[in-house]
Design goal:
mainly alpha
Amino acid sequence: MLLETLSPSPRRTRAQNGVGLFPLATHGGPLWEPLCYVQIGGLTFATVVTLVLVPTLYAAFVLDLKIVRWEQVRPEGVTAVPERGQIGEQPPKGAAA
């Protein structure tokens, strides 16, 4: 579940930015070193928050404690929501419309 929250492209981009900043951070001079370390730390922190903290809070508040309720608003006369894959399918022949 953790790795499913973010598609591979943004994960790869964050990792490449962090790895790409290491040479500049180690040999970049007095101005670039602290700047690169702050950027690497920020990318790492944002990745941890996105992959760990957000799914954990979602699971705690929505799934376990049920503090936040997700209810679907249904049009009048509709008693059930169609299953995935059934939207737009034709009803069987002889079924009431």
